[in-house]
Specification:
This protein is an alpha/beta fold. The protein is built from four helices and nine strands. Strands 3, 4, 5, 6, 7, 8 and 9 form a seven-stranded mixed beta sheet that branches.
Length: 161
């Protein structure tokens, strides 16, 4: 595979570059912003995002999906994850809201970071330029936590029309 990776964090990109070098893997890793992907139009056969594109608001998620559409080749595949509105933190709404789908996290690790939450209707609306091949709705259970929070995510496999 010809692999490119991008993150907004200099630290994360340097970490990946060092790891790839140790593993003798060729990965084109660079710093960039998901709101304006640093790639040419129709550059990729596949885009894989894992728990990253939800770190925005309702306006940002539409821009990110548009950028994914721009860099994918026709019939290109996308593997995406979205926070689910069925997650306890969204359903019980104890975090400040930016818009009807976005909360500002108050957890220590991600304090102040926006999180966009979706339901099936939101996914269908966001992905109108894709053929959705699979949506999996998953709940994570962390038995070591003292709270009864449910963390739910959508895993989406789609192909650009």
């Amino acid at each position: 595979f010809d692999v490119s990776a991008m993150d907004i964090s200099d630290y994360a990109v340097e970490y990946l570059k060092n790891w790839a070098e140790k593993e003798n893997l060729e990965i084109n890793a660079q710093v960039g912003d998901m709101l304006s992907l640093p790639y040419d139009d129709q550059s990729f056969d596949c885009v894989f995002t894992y728990h990253v594109i939800s770190h925005t608001d309702a306006v940002g998620i539409r821009k990110i999906i548009s950028e994914i559409e721009r860099v994918l080749k026709p019939n290109g595949e996308a593997y995406l994850t979205f926070c689910s509105k069925e997650s306890t933190e969204f359903a019980e709404s104890w975090f400040p809201k930016l818009d009807e789908n976005t909360l500002i996290s108050q957890d220590e690790a991600e304090k102040g970071i926006p999180h966009y939450y979706a339901d099936l209707n939101d996914l269908k609306e966001l992905l109108t330029n894709f053929n959705i091949e699979l949506i999996k709705h998953t709940e994570y259970c962390n038995l070591n936590r003292k709270s009864n929070r449910r963390e739910r995510f959508y895993y989406v496999e789609a192909r650009l029309k």
